[in-house]
Amino acid sequence: MTAYATEAPTAWTAACPSARLRPDDGVAVLLPGGRQAALFRTRTGLYAVDNIDPFTGAAVLSRGIVGDRAGEPTVASPLLKNVFSLRTGLSLDDPAVRLDTWPVHDDGTTVRIGTEGTP
After folding, report:
1. Using one digit for the tens of pLDDT, what is the confidence trace for 50-89?
2. Does residue 44 sit within a domain?
3. Where in this chain does the record put each Rieske domain (predicted)?
4. Would 47 be classed as within a structural domain?
5. What pTM was computed for the model?
6. Spatial strand order in the sheet of 104-106
7. What domain range includes position 28?
């Protein structure tokens, strides 16, 4: 299963075992170069967005509340409850704010995040 990607990645970073990522759960992943991603499995797909909440600067989005707004998969920050699209990273509360997103792939054993050539 592959999530949405805007560019084809040139490298994939192993994030976690497939069995570790349960539906509607998130995990924080340290990417090459020190960035953090929040990785989610929903009932509709796999998604990776920035783990840093742009409204607070805290690394908490992996602990956010996964949901759906009019068919759009979302995550709400556990601090201020700002909601972001998991597909696009766009804030649904402030359209001027957007999280970076990464392509995600699950080969049945390991979930991987596309890291080079993206975002």
Report:
1. 999 999 999 999 999 999 999 999 999 999 999 999 999 9
2. yes
3. 13-113
4. yes
5. 0.88
6. 11-17, 110-116, 104-106
7. 2-114
